[in-house]
C-alpha cells in the first residue's frame, strides 16, 4: 500500500528519464503544476521535442547519468529499458529522491495516480498498481462530480477570501422533472451555499442539498407574488456580497418569460459576477410530454411563444393566423376565454385544435384537448388550473391525447 500525498512542484526540478509516449503523457501535468522539467533521452517523441523547442522543458539528448539527479525533487523513469529503470531507481534511492519506476509498480517508491480535475477539485485514485482500474474509478468520480451527484461545495472559505464577492448562477431547472436539469446546472447546485428557489423548478433536488445550504423560497402563484421581483433581485445581490455562491433555481429557461434578464442586469449593476445556465423551456418540453411537437414536417414549420397572463390582442395580431403555425401560451389559464376570443377575432379559425397540459412532467400531468371554439368551456368543466401550457395549432392532432371526435361541452373529456 502507499501513503497518499500531494506534492507542490512549482519551481522544483523534476527529472524524466525516457522520451517515449508514456513519458510524454506525464509531462503536461507536471508543467501545469509549474515544475521545471528536464528530459533525458537519446530520442524523444514529437510532443516532447516540440515542448523543448518552445522552451517549456529542457531536453538532454543523451543517455542517463547519475549526475542528472542533482537538484531533482522527483524522478519519473520511463525509458522502457529494464536495466536503465533499475539503475535510475537505485540512484534515486541513494540520493533520497522519490522515483516513479515505470513498468514495475512493486519496486517503485512513488506512484502516479489517475487524476480527475473538476473546477478547483482534484481527485487522485491509486489502486495498488492496477492502472486500468484506477482510470475507471477516476472516470466514475469525475462524472459524479461533473453531474453534481457528488457535491463540490466549499464548506469553509479560506482566510484570504474573507470579504470577497461571491457569485450568482441563474440556473434554468427545466419543467419540474429533476432529470431535465442540465449537467452544468446540477453541478452548480451542488456547489451552492444559498439556493433561491422557484415554485416550478426541479423541487426534488432540494432535499438532497447539504443541511447547511440555505434555501430561500421565492415562488410565485397566479395573482400572488409573496416575494416581489425587486426583493428577489435584492436577495441575490445581498447573498453574493456576503461571499456566497448563490444559485437562483428557476423553472424552465431563465430567459423565456422568466425574468432572468432582469436578475442578470441587477447583479451586474451591483458588481456581482453572474452566470446564466440555459434550461429546457416548458414552452417546448411540456407539449413534448403530451406528445405534441411544436413543429412537424408537413404540419407546422414554425412556432411562437407568448405570455398568456396579459391581454394578447396586440400580440395575436403579429402572429401568423394559419393553424400550420403553432402558438404556445404560457401562464394563460386565467385569461383563457379572453385569449381565445382574441385569437378568433384576429383571424384564427374556431376549429383550430388546442391542447392544455397541466403540471407537465409531473405525476399529476393532465391533458385537455379541444378547439378554439370549445376549449374554454372544456377547461371550465375540467377545472383546469395553473401551471399549464396551452398549445394552439394543427400539431395538437399529433398527440395521442387528441380524440377522433369531440364530445359536447357538458361532458368531461378523459384524455389521460
UniProtKB/TrEMBL annotation:
Pathway of action: Porphyrin-containing compound metabolism; siroheme biosynthesis; sirohydrochlorin from precorrin-2: step 1/1
Name the UniProt record assigns to this protein: Uroporphyrin-III C-methyltransferase/precorrin-2 dehydrogenase/sirohydrochlorin ferrochelatase
Pfam families in alphabetical order: NAD_binding_7, TP_methylase
Keyword S-adenosyl-L-methionine: yes
InterPro entries attached to this UniProt entry: 4pyrrol_Mease, 4pyrrol_Methylase_sf, 4pyrrole_Mease_sub1, 4pyrrole_Mease_sub2, CobA/CysG_C, NAD(P)-bd_dom_sf, Siro_Cobalamin_biosynth, Sirohaem_synth
Gene Ontology molecular function: NAD binding; precorrin-2 dehydrogenase activity; sirohydrochlorin ferrochelatase activity; uroporphyrin-III C-methyltransferase activity
Species, as recorded: Arthrobacter pigmenti
Domain Tetrapyrrole methylase: 168-375
Coiled-coil residue windows: none
Amino acid at each position: 500500500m502507499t501513503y497518499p500525498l500531494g506534492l507542490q512542484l512549482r519551481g522544483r526540478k523534476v527529472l524524466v528519464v525516457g522520451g517515449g509516449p508514456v513519458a510524454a503523457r506525464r509531462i503536461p501535468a507536471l508543467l501545469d503544476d509549474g515544475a521545471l522539467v528536464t528530459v533525458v533521452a537519446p530520442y524523444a517523441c514529437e510532443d516532447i521535442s516540440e515542448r523543448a523547442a518552445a522552451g517549456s522543458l529542457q531536453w538532454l539528448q543523451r543517455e542517463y547519468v547519475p549526475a542528472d539527479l542533482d537538484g531533482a525533487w522527483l524522478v519519473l523513469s520511463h525509458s522502457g529499458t529494464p536495466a536503465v529503470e533499475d539503475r535510475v531507481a537505485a540512484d534515486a534511492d541513494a540520493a533520497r529522491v522519490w522515483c516513479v519506476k515505470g513498468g514495475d509498480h512493486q519496486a517503485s517508491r512513488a506512484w502516479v495516480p489517475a487524476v480527475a480535475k473538476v473546477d478547483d477539485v482534484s481527485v487522485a485514485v491509486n489502486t495498488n498498481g492496477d492502472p486500468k482500474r484506477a482510470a475507471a474509478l477516476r472516470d466514475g468520480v469525475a462524472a459524479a462530480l461533473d453531474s453534481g451527484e457528488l457535491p463540490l461545495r466549499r464548506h469553509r472559505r479560506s482566510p484570504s477570501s474573507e470579504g470577497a464577492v461571491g457569485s450568482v448562477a441563474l440556473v434554468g431547472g427545466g419543467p419540474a422533472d429533476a432529470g431535465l436539469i442540465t449537467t452544468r446546472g446540477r453541478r452548480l447546485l451542488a456547489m451552492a451555499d444559498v439556493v433561491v428557489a422557484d415554485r416550478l423548478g426541479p423541487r426534488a433536488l432540494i432535499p438532497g442539498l447539504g443541511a447547511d445550504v440555505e434555501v430561500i423560497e421565492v415562488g410565485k402563484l397566479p395573482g400572488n407574488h409573496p416575494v416581489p421581483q425587486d426583493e428577489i433581485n435584492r436577495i441575490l445581490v445581498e447573498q453574493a456580497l456576503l461571499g456566497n455562491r448563490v444559485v437562483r433555481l428557476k423553472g424552465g429557461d431563465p430567459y423565456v418569460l422568466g425574468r432572468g434578464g432582469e436578475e442578470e442586469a441587477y447583479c451586474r449593476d451591483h458588481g456581482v459576477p453572474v452566470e446564466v445556465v440555459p434550461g429546457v423551456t416548458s414552452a417546448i418540453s411540456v407539449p413534448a410530454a403530451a406528445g405534441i411537437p411544436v413543429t412537424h414536417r408537413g404540419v407546422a414549420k414554425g412556432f411562437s411563444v407568448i405570455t398568456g397572463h396579459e391581454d394578447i390582442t396586440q400580440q395575436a395580431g403579429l402572429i401568423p393566423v394559419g393553424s400550420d403555425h403553432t402558438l404556445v401560451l404560457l401562464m394563460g389559464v386565467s385569461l383563457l376565454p379572453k385569449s381565445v376570443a382574441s385569437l378568433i377575432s384576429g383571424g384564427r379559425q374556431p376549429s383550430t385544435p388546442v391542447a392544455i397540459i397541466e403540471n407537465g412532467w409531473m405525476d399529476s400531468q393532465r391533458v385537455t384537448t379541444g378547439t378554439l371554439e370549445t376549449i374554454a368551456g372544456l377547461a371550465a368543466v375540467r377545472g383546469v388550473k395553473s401551471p399549464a401550457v396551452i398549445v394552439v395549432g394543427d400539431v395538437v392532432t399529433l398527440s395521442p391525447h387528441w380524440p377522433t371526435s369531440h364530445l359536447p361541452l357538458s361532458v368531461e373529456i378523459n384524455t389521460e
